[in-house]
Amino acid sequence: MGKLAVVATIKTIRGRREEYLKHLQAHAQRCLTTEPGTLNFEILVPHELDDTTMLYEVYESPKSFRGALEWPV
């Protein structure tokens, strides 16, 4: 079975994106170090949209993705 990728768009409160990014960066690091099968977790920041953050996550397999959903947040 092939890899699985997730692309997500998150809207934040205008002017609060930087605060949100601090928490999201910590979450990304946790996912990469503690979730088996998490291959990539990128945070994208569109400069022209100050209330938007995008995520690009790659998992080794659909099974790895399902396993990531079972980890406590």
If you had to describe this structure to a student in words, what would you say it looks like?
With 73 residues, the chain is an alpha+beta fold. The chain has two helices and three strands. It is elongated and about 40 Å long.
Oligomer: single chain
User: What number is the mean pLDDT?
Assistant: 90
Largest sheet properties: 3 strands, antiparallel
Compute the number of helices.
2
Number of strands: 3
Radius of gyration: 13 Å
- Find the structural class using helix and strand composition: alpha+beta
Helix content: 25-40%
> What's the N-to-C terminus distance?
27 Å
Please tag this protein with its features.
alpha+beta; 3-stranded antiparallel β-sheet; 2 helices; 73 residues
What's the arrangement of secondary structure elements?
Elements: E1 4-11, H1 17-34, E2 38-44, E3 52-59, H2 62-70
Antiparallel strand pairs: 1-3, 2-3
Summarize this, please?
The chain is an alpha+beta fold and 73 residues long.
